[in-house]
Structure formats: structure tokens, C-alpha cells
């Protein structure tokens, strides 16, 4: 009658061990300025979608929505763009203040779209459905560029044609009024400088375009 080795209820220590020793989330080692700016822009856009009325998801986002987003950003701009009726329309260096609105500079918007286009695909979006690459967006940007160039008197494009102008006829260019015209030395309107310009709006619980009262029936 000896039952040897009664198997004691050895409580196997399976209890511990699981949760605690977490895998420390890999911290990204210093993003480049471009990368961190891109991340901020992307978050700003996602936040814009979240606040959008009616609700809008990324999957349903079209080029038209992107343009809407760009228009929304204009209120945070810092670039004076003269209205057609302003006395300073077309003047690069107006001698005084005017009530024309501040807008996002074209170069800022252009760079912003480039970052968002990349961010969209990096977050899993298919290139062929990338709303930031939509043709409408490209056209919009071109229109902004042209209208700002006129309003501010700053050409964004370098002159390409340099054919010798055939000075035919005696169009006496007397009235030497237009100084400046010859200059063109200005290093094509600083796209390159544009770091801070497109600052994300961050807070300002931005209900773009007035509160739309939800008509509950
Ligand atoms: Zn003005």
C-alpha cells in the first residue's frame, strides 16, 4: 500500500509572465523635417475629415474634397493676395496696407499636396484612388498659381522663350514708365523657402463655413 509519489498539485507557475514585460514601442529616431511635416499635415487632414459635415471618410474622399480642404486652409494663410478691385492689384511691393485677405501661398499648397499624396499611399491607399493626385487638384493648383502671380505681380515661372524679339515696326517704346520689367533677377518666388508657411491649423475647432444646423425632422 504505498502509493509513491503522490502527484502533488503542483501549481505550475503559468500565471505570471504574460502582460508586463511589454515590448517597448520602437521609437522612430528623429524624423527629418520633411517627414515630420508630412506627418503633421496628414494628421491635420484626418482631423479635417473627422470634423467634416456631412461625415467623410478617407475612402470616399475625392479631389473635390481635397480642394475644399485647401480652401479651408486659406483662412490660416499669411500671403497677401490682392483682389481684382484693389488698387495694389499686381503690385509686388504695395506702398500701404489694404483690406485684401491673406491666403496660403501657392508654393505652400503645392508642397503640401505633394506631402499628402505621399502620406496617402504610405498609409495604404492605392495610387489610382489617391485624391491628392486627382486631376482637379492639379488644375486648381495651377489656377491658384496663375491668379496669385497676377494679383501679387510675381511671376512664378521663369521666362522660357528667349527668342530674339523681332523689333519690327517702329513701336517707339518711349514712355519709359515701367521700371522693374527688366529685372527678373528675383530667384523665382521662393518655393524653396517655404518651411513654415503651411502651418497646420491645429486647434480652432474649425467648423469650416458656418454651422449647419442639423434639421431634425
Ligand atoms: Zn489689396
From TrEMBL:
It comes from the Eukaryota. Transmembrane segments: none annotated. Keywords: Developmental protein, DNA-binding, Nucleus, Transcription, Transcription regulation. GO terms for biological process: mRNA transcription; response to light stimulus. PANTHER family: PROTEIN G1-LIKE2, PROTEIN G1-LIKE7. It comes from Brachypodium distachyon (Purple false brome). Residues 33-160 form the ALOG domain. GO terms for cellular component: nucleus. Residues 1-36, 151-217 are annotated as: Disordered. The keyword Calcium does not apply. This is ALOG domain-containing protein. Belongs to the plant homeotic and developmental regulators ALOG protein family. It is found in: Nucleus. Residues 1-25, 167-176, 186-217 have a biased composition (Low complexity). It holds the Pfam family ALOG_dom. The lineage of its organism: Eukaryota, Viridiplantae, Streptophyta, Embryophyta, Tracheophyta. InterPro entries: ALOG (IPR040222), ALOG_dom (IPR006936).
Amino acid at each position: 500500500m504505498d502509493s509513491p509519489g503522490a502527484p502533488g498539485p503542483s501549481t505550475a507557475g503559468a500565471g505570471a509572465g504574460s502582460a508586463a514585460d511589454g515590448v517597448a514601442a520602437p521609437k522612430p529616431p528623429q524624423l527629418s523635417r520633411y517627414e515630420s511635416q508630412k506627418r503633421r499635415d496628414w494628421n491635420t487632414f484626418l482631423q479635417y475629415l473627422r470634423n467634416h459635415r456631412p461625415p467623410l471618410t478617407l475612402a470616399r474622399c475625392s479631389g473635390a474634397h481635397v480642394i475644399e480642404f485647401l480652401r479651408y486652409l486659406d483662412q490660416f494663410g499669411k500671403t497677401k493676395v490682392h483682389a481684382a478691385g484693389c488698387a495694389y492689384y499686381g503690385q509686388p511691393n504695395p506702398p500701404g496696407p489694404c483690406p485684401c485677405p491673406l491666403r496660403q501661398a501657392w508654393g505652400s499648397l503645392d508642397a503640401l499636396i505633394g506631402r499628402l499624396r505621399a502620406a496617402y499611399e504610405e498609409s495604404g491607399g492605392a495610387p489610382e484612388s489617391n485624391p491628392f493626385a486627382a486631376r482637379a487638384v492639379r488644375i486648381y493648383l495651377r489656377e491658384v498659381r496663375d491668379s496669385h502671380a497676377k494679383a501679387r505681380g510675381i511671376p512664378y515661372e521663369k521666362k522660357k522663350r528667349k527668342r530674339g524679339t523681332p523689333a519690327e515696326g517702329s513701336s517707339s517704346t518711349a514712355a519709359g514708365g515701367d521700371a522693374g520689367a527688366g529685372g527678373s533677377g528675383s530667384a523665382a518666388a521662393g518655393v524653396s523657402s517655404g518651411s513654415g508657411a503651411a502651418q497646420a491649423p491645429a486647434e480652432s475647432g474649425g467648423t469650416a463655413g458656418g454651422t449647419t444646423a442639423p434639421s431634425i425632422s
